[in-house]
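Reviewers of the previous submission asked for a worked example of the structure-prediction workflow described in the proposal, so we include one complete record here. The input consisted solely of the amino acid sequence. No template or homolog information was supplied to the procedure at any stage.
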Amino acid sequence: MYALAQLNLLFNYISAQKKKVKTPYLDFNDPEQVPHVTIQLPVFNEEYVMERLLENIALIDYPKNKLEIQVLDDSTDETVASTAIRVQMLKDQGLDIVHICRTNREGFKAGALKEGLKIAKGEFIAIFDADFLPKKDWLKKTIPYFIDRNIGVVQTRWGHINRNYSTLTKIQAFALDAHFTLEQVGRNSKGHFINFNGTAGVWRRQCIIDAGNWEGDTLTEDLDLSYRAQLKNWKFEYLEDVVTPAELPVVISAARSQQFRWNKGGAENFRKMMTRVLKSKNISPKTKLHGLLHLLNSTMFLNVLVVGILSIPMLYIKNEYAHLKPYFYVMSFFVLSTIIFFVCYWFMYKRSYGGGFKNFIRYIGMFFTFFSIAMGFSLHNSIAVLEGHFGKRSEFVRTPKFNISSIKDSWQGNKYLRKNISKNVIFEGLLMLYFAFGMYSAFVVGDQGGDFGLFPFHLMLFLGFGFVFFKSLTSKA
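From that input alone, the workflow returned the following structure tokens.
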């Protein structure tokens, strides 16, 4: 079902490319037309990127008397003092910038955004995480869309300044590119629910208040508020062509914490929003279906893990009990889902890198690598998903930032990296051995010279868990 939904989004995406949407015009030289904007920068212990962030934000091209910048600083280390100095320097240069420090981290990022909103001057609230580097014309490309009074959010596409740093950054970029093209455009173009991605977007202040304001009861407060706003009939505008560069996690421990938060938050929001979506009289059945599958997308990892673990006993059962073979042949129909993903992701890859035989061969290698490593994350992400579905609360863990944009840069010595290795890494190592046994089993089962139907699947699981296991052992600072 999830694969078929992705295929539907691909058709939506292709049809959306044929329609050219004109950017609304807003005369930024006319003070009457220019709305007041507040840029919120939620930060927490960002020693390595804080200077870069503030220098970049100071370059934003927007009438100075209509722009406010809030540095929402929940830091607990010495960066509070250095950030205060930098903020004061920008203030001395004539920028309307404030440094807001809370005495507690209640609600984490959601709490910081809510606190800032109380005193924000802006009619519109732009939000950037610490590793994002919007171009100076960013507000001039996004704010005009709010001429439509029904639009509550304008979201832009993420770019990746360190895409080619390592295999890990390449596959993260590959997955995010699919989300920010296929899924966001595919849903938005047909009026289905999309999500504000936590950063690189603008909210209409009235929309935030009307939807019930930021809430910190899930780990993905952005997805939560997005659904509450759309259930109140606010429209979202997604701008595929406005790219906001950002940094991808370069160490697997940082990627693990980010993945855990995103996947657990998705499951938490499914619990929180499922009934509201189903009961809503304002949305179509198709939008409800896409919404539920959207909220359940992190649960795909649980499905992958269960299917993977059961596939080896299945291999033996199939070859021991001949009368059951027809069932297994029928079940192989579901391989079609992988083919659908392969086709969908190819369209997105082609959009970024172009078509042609050489690029297609590169794509096959990238898809195989991506699928393998995604499977390797399935245990880690399944634990996150189960915690989310069962309502286990946990702290909001920020993803460490590195200020890394080229291969020459090193992450060694980053003081925000976790020093201890998760005990789940042991189980990932055991699963690597388990799927090595699965590959061995292909040669020995049955009396017909083996059964290699599941061999590629087990190979990908072996490589994926092996990658995650060994990288996790070596990702300490």
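The chain has a mean pLDDT of 93. We consider this example representative of the routine output the project will generate in years two and three.
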